[in-house]
Amino acid sequence: MTRDAARWTILLVVIAAASGGLYYQYQNTRPCAHPIPYAIGAVDSRFDIGRPALITNAKAAAAIWNKAAGKDILIYDPKAALKINLIYDEREANAKLGSKIALQQADADDARAALDAAQARLVAEQAAYNQTVNAINARGGATKSEVRELAAQRASLDTLAKSLSNAVDLYNASVAALNAEVERYNQSTGRTFEQGEYVRDGAGERINIFEFVGTTQLKRVLAHEFGHAIGLGHNTDPRSIMFAKNESGNLVPTQADFTALEAICGT
């Protein structure tokens, strides 16, 4: 081996060693290289969910991405800087109003069915009473016992009719109140609301949750915002977790989610 060849060998070794160091530094700083810790921040009590339940749901949402990545990329740490906050405003108030309206509508439907049944009963009993009266008149009149029986039937029919009338008045009043609630709800839902947001600015990082109905929707919006924390953007698959709108109850990453995750985290 000549002296020049020896120099080239040393140079190649140095370059290879330097390249390995740069690659290690790149791998160490790229997304998903280290787990992202998160904690629970401010929780407004009007959400009717305690911190332990929120932690459980947050862990379930984080597990979606951990499983997809094949490793822990999101971990719960009570001291973490990334905080999950439940912020109560008109969005959650309106979501609760929507749930309340749904229950009231179901009650109104049941009340209407009961009124229809009572009306049918009144019509049937009235028809039977009229048929009896016509038959008695056709034969020339009623006996004393028949007069007493007819009077009792008439009184029963009057009581049933009055009860039905009162029930109809109550039903109409409840429907009017329900319609007013629906009008108020529709005025709010005419605007576009964000259920949650991931914020990274000079003050740090945080996930703010504004609206959810039920644990499935909570886990999905948490998973969506965790996706942003990892570095994922929105995609165009309506069933995916990273779709811009929380319209699906799907809690399993779609191919679009996997593709985006692989792009920033590697295989």
Describe the structure.
With 267 residues, this protein is an alpha/beta fold. The protein has 3 domains: 1-30; 31-89 and 194-265, Collagenase (Catalytic Domain) (3-Layer(aba) Sandwich); 91-189. 63% of the residues lie in helices and 10% in strands. The protein contains 6 helices and 5 strands. The protein has helices at 3-29, 51-69, 90-138, 144-189, 215-230, 255-265, and strands at 36-43, 74-76, 82-86, 196-201, 204-209. It has a 5-stranded mixed sheet, covered by helices on one side. α2 (51-69) links the parallel β1 and β2 (74-76). α2 packs across α5 (215-230) and α3 (90-138) runs antiparallel to α4. The longest helix has 49 residues, at 90-138. It is rod-shaped, with a radius of gyration of 35 Å. The protein starts with a helix and ends with a helix. Residues 1-29 have low confidence and may be disordered.
